Amino acid sequence: MSAKLTPEDVLRLSPVMPVVVIEDAAQAPPLARALLAGGVRTVEITLRTPAALDAIRAVASEAPAMVVGAGTVLTADDLDAAIGAGAKYALSPGGTPKLLKAAARRDIPFIPGVATSSEIQRGLERGYSCFKFFPAEQLGGPAALKAQGGPFPQARFCPTGGITAEKAPGYLALGNVLCVGGSWIAPADKIKGGDWSGVEAAARRAAGLR
Questions:
Q1: Which one of 45, 47, 68, 119 has the fewest CB atoms closer than 10 angstroms to its CB?
Q2: CA distances, 12 to each of 35, 84, 176, 183 (Å)
Q3: Span 186-209, mean pLDDT?
Q4: Measured between alpha carbons, how far is 85 from 55 in angstroms, rounded to an integer?
Q5: Which residues are marked as active site?
Q6: Mean pLDDT of the region 129-153
Q7: Maximum CA pair distance of the chain?
Q8: Which run of H or of E encompasses 67?
């Protein structure tokens, strides 16, 4: 499945891509099942904790219907570790030339992060057309992304950073935004407390945003 997915396919899986931080890998499969029950087919597990790779591995093994991705991929080693754990795609908050070159040689979709016009232009030159716009709210929100649509009509975005359930529709109304990334669907307290019904309810609301 990973070889057939394109970055655009990934960003069209759900109007909201849950961005999660997992401290205990055992919580990852029930989290994935709760998201699926709510109609959300993807989750970005950030590589910010020692449990992250085991969490990706657990979802890939125990909740195979979930398209699990790795976030906060900063190096080629991070990318290879994520692939080894079973990630179906990867995202980065940025995109160095070294990382972009490495990702182009790997067999899963990679979505680099951008914050400026120059970064978008460099990504397009390297064959990328889908980007993570981060940190979205701090960079100007929907107005900034709408402005980028003029010079870069071929670029598509997943804005992430400071987006809430209330702010998400403003982004999703833009033609160059395929989804938004957000932590409100599965925040750390809900994951830690095992509030899977709460996660499912939030996922159902998010899935209905588009």
A1: 119
A2: 16, 24, 12, 18
A3: 97
A4: 9
A5: 44, 132
A6: 98
A7: 45
A8: strand 67-71
* Contact assessment for residue 87 and residue 42, using Cβ atoms and an 8 Å cutoff: no
2 pLDDT higher than 80: no
The stretch 11-37 carries a mean pLDDT of 98
Across the beta sheet with 180-182, what order do the strands follow? Answer: 110-111, 89-91, 67-71, 42-46, 16-20, 180-182
| Interatomic CA distance for residues 33 and 157, integer angstroms | 26
Looking at residue 22, its pLDDT comes to: 97
- Whether pLDDT at 1 is above 90: no
- What domains sit in the chain, N to C, each tagged with a CATH number? 7-207 (3.20.20.70)
Share of the chain above pLDDT 90, in %: 98
Q: For 161-176, what is the mean pLDDT?
A: 97
Is 189 buried (19+), middle (13-18) or exposed (0-12) by CB count in 10 A?
Answer: exposed
Report the mean per-residue pLDDT for the chain: 96
> Which is nearest to 136 in space by CA: 183, 102, 98?
183
- Reading the block at residue 32, the tokens are 């994935």
- Structure letter (DSSP) for residue 122: H
